[in-house]
Hints:
Blueprint: H1 2-11, E1 16-22, E2 26-27, H2 39-49, E3 55-59, E4 66-70, H3 72-84, H4 86-89, E5 91-97, H5 102-116, H6 123-141, H7 145-155, H8 160-172, H9 175-182, H10 188-194, H11 199-211, H12 215-242, H13 261-281
Parallel strand pairs: 2-4, 3-5
Antiparallel strand pairs: 1-5, 3-4
Amino acid sequence: MENTISSKISSLHNKAEYKTVALTDIICNPKNDYQMINIDELAEDIKRNGLLHNLVVVPTQESGKYKLLAGERRFKALQKLNESEPEKWGTVHVLVYTGLTERQEEIIMDSSNLQARSSGGNEEQLRKATNRYMDNLKAEFGISEKQALKEATDVYSGSGNTIRTNRKIGQNLNEDFTDELDKGKIGKGDAAVIADMNEDEQDNLFDEFESAETEEEKQAVITNAVNNQKEKSTKAKAEKKSGKQPKETEEYSSIYTNLNGKIRILIYKITKRLLTIFLKDVNI
């Protein structure tokens, strides 16, 4: 089955041929929102060693124009070289795909990005590419979630854990916490744990998070919730391994976890105040 999936993906490459086109006839792909870094260094490398990997494009509705699917950093580096030596860098050898659907274009684009983004880059962009790639594979080839995850993990040049975590966050983390993650207000590790909570738990936690007055208090809310969820998950795994049925349902899991957000913040403030008084009394 795995070979069949790979062959289906490879079949898209049968719709391609090599051409030499003018650099000015190529446009960037608005869906490829990766941050383009180190363009000057790449331009120098291409100048010394040549273009080692072809740009990948598709024809646009405008005759003679092409849209990038892969190689935007190389394209921008070539543009820089073309500014100073247009007679040398004015044309480029490209791989042109024809007859692709929009979904197939995205599969090729995201496959290329996942192969090239093993280190550095923007986490949000990588997460979006991961989820779009997997969703498109499932829709295009009728494969399961498990099969799509394997394909994404195989094509990604970095850690498979990155793909699995990005998928879990993309599928399970609510919009409010996803926005906080993208703004850097919560960490990816914490977001992955929060994604294990059900919808109501996430909504209640976010209300509590929003009610916190300071960044320190917000972080305390997240830390407490994440620690509680980890304990809950660890216990559930242990019970499953031992063959026992959990003694508690989600409804009765933990009195502390289900306390009203404002009460938990109040407990945090009182504890902090008492600790301050204690340290002052003992002259520490």
